[in-house]
Amino acid sequence: QVQLVESGGGLVQAGGSLRLSCAASGRTFSGYRMGWFRQAPGKEREFVAIINWSDGSTTYADSVKGRFTISRDNAKSAVFLQMNSLKPADTAVYYCAAASSPRSWEYWGQGTQVTVST
Fold first, then answer.
1. What digits encode the pLDDT tens for the residues 98-108?
2. Cα–Cα distance between 67 and 113 in angstroms, integer?
3. Which residues of 11-28 are buried (b: 16+ CB within 10 A; e: fewer)?
4. Which of 11, 36, 72, 85 could serve as 48's disulfide partner, Cβ 3.0–4.6 Å?
């Protein structure tokens, strides 16, 4: 059974940093894309960052480019999101997801809350 478990969320002041972790288990994720998404109250879920497990290539949403960094640890089967220079607009529930095909994200974590205060 595939499980994605996020951790590391919390309350931080604007300009601060947080590091989110996603522990992935239940299968081998080589060949998968791993992603971080977020959903703010009253808004749709949006893409934040993606990493290809095999080669480590990354893609970022324009809104986080230069501030957030996605990475993975093959040995720990984990994906991370380092978030710097946080803004109140980054406040959301952050989700980890995994996809084996370009068309859909098959697996999702339960989410972790990130709140950025002014």
1. 999 888 999 99
2. 18
3. ebeeeeebebbbebeeee
4. 36
Contact status, residue 42 vs residue 48, Cβ threshold 8 Å: no
CA atoms within 13 A on the CB side of 96: 29
Q: For the chain, where are the alpha helices, taking DSSP H only?
A: none
> What are residue 115's phi and psi, to 5 degrees?
-125, 125
Token duo for residue 53: 């497990």
Q: Give the amino acid at 12.
A: V
Q: How far apart are CA 113 and CA 87, in angstroms?
A: 14
Q: What is the pLDDT of residue 50?
A: 97
